[in-house]
Specification:
The protein is mainly α. It has one domain. It is about 85% helix and about 0% strand. The protein has 4 helices and no strands. The chain is elongated.
């Protein structure tokens, strides 16, 4: 949960960054998807081989959703992009 952890550290050290409504929505959507991904991975680790295929598609969809929103940028760069979006 790298995006959630990074935002948590930023908030702890600097306060919540000034973001527009769309940027806040994007960041929290990523955090939500990261949480879902972590939950699926935990469930997957407890399944037998016959049940694993059921989760593969969901894991792919969650990873794809995160990539669509973040552009695969590291958390720092993604937050910088959102902050700059506020200024434009």
């Amino acid at each position: 949960m790298k995006y959630a952890s990074y935002l948590g550290q930023v908030i702890k050290n600097q306060g919540f960054p000034k973001l527009n409504e769309r940027a806040i929505q994007d960041y929290f959507n990523v955090i939500y998807l990261e949480g879902q991904l972590a939950a699926y991975k935990k469930m997957k680790s407890k399944l037998n081989n016959d049940e694993l295929h059921k989760f593969e598609l969901e894991l792919f969809k969650l990873n794809n959703g995160i990539t669509k929103i973040t552009g695969n940028l590291p958390p720092r760069e993604f937050l910088r992009l959102l902050i700059n979006r506020e200024r434009t």
